[in-house]
Design goal:
- Helices cover 25% and strands 31% of the residues.
- The chain is globular, with a radius of gyration of 22 Å.
- A hairpin with a 2-residue loop joins strand 2 and strand 3.
- It has a single domain, classed as Thrombin, subunit H, CATH 2.40.10.120.
- The longest helix has 42 residues.
- It has a 6-stranded antiparallel barrel.
- By secondary structure, the chain is an alpha+beta fold.
């Protein structure tokens, strides 16, 4: 009898939440659409003026690594606006990530996109705060996910299939306690996962690579990365999203390496220009 009561209590956590609304200004400042040759590919978040955080799978197409020049990100709007875009110069995936990976290796499904031109941070474009500490919730808490949704077209469902997800939408979700999640999934849930309950399919359309967030508009923090999974999208079990704190050190170290490499490259270009200019002057003065 106690088992039945416990299961009933846990299942009440799945009565969600799925109130949706157009993204608030605080959310739309840091959530981007990642576009591959004019078609929506993934969502992502701005973590610095030159870097976007997303899933490693978003850097692949048909099992092949995408040429960075074919990717761009659209920023600073709850709707697509190609005027606010940046092209990608590099896609850095976790060194332990494999596109065809087993369940253990999936925890490395994370990537940093390097932008060709740094973003100008303002009221419409800003960075998201990342969770740097492992959060292991022992009770249910409220959170939200920001996903790109297709516009509503009631009269032409066939045309709707061809339209890109282009409207940024917030979905309120519940983040379950790890013990409750283990009971529902009937398996061990690793520490790097967050257990999130939301209606099946709500995030599958345009959420992959986007943020799992907690807090309010005064202080909102990204604690996880949305993971597209066919199995979860087709059933009512809570979804498992990667926690950013698990990757925080990797993110920080990769950005440091990228910035150091950029400084070295800039320094080399300056030296090269100096030597070239000096050579020109010497040649002009030789009679």
């Amino acid at each position: 009898m106690s088992k039945v009561i416990k299961t009933t209590l846990i299942l009440t956590h799945l009565i969600i939440i799925c109130s949706s609304q157009n993204a608030t200004s605080s959310t739309s400042t840091f959530v981007v659409a990642i576009i591959l040759r004019g078609t929506f590919k993934c969502a992502g978040t701005i973590i610095s003026q030159s870097h976007v955080l997303t899933q490693a799978n978003c850097c692949f197409e048909n099992s092949m690594l995408i040429e960075p020049k074919n990717l761009m990100v659209i920023t600073g709007t709850p709707k697509w606006d190609v005027e606010r875009r940046r092209y990608v110069s590099k896609c850095v995936t976790h060194e332990n990530f494999y596109h065809h990976s087993n369940e253990t290796e999936k925890k490395f499904d994370i990537a940093i996109l390097v932008l060709e031109t740094p973003l100008i941070l303002d009221a419409k474009v800003n960075v998201v705060k990342l969770d740097a500490f492992t959060a292991n919730f022992n009770k249910l808490i409220q959170g939200k996910v920001a996903v790109w949704k297709k516009p509503e077209l009631e009269d032409d469902q066939e045309k709707l299939q061809e339209i890109n997800p282009s409207i940024l939408t917030d979905l309120n979700v519940n983040i379950l306690a790890k013990e409750d999640c283990k009971t529902l999934h009937k398996k061990i849930i690793e520490d790097y996962y967050f257990c999130v309950s939301l209606k099946s399919g709500d995030y599958c359309e345009g959420g992959t690579g986007g943020p799992l967030l907690i807090g309010d508009n005064n202080r909102i923090v990204q604690v996880g990365i949305i993971d597209y999974n066919d199995d979860f999208c087709k059933n009512s079990l809570p979804q498992l999203f990667y926690g950013t704190s698990y990757y925080y050190t990797w993110i920080r170290n990769e950005i440091r390496k990228l910035e150091l490499s950029k400084k070295r490259s800039t320094s080399w270009r300056k030296r090269t220009r100096f030597y070239a200019t000096t050579t020109e002057l010497i040649n002009k003065n030789v009679h």
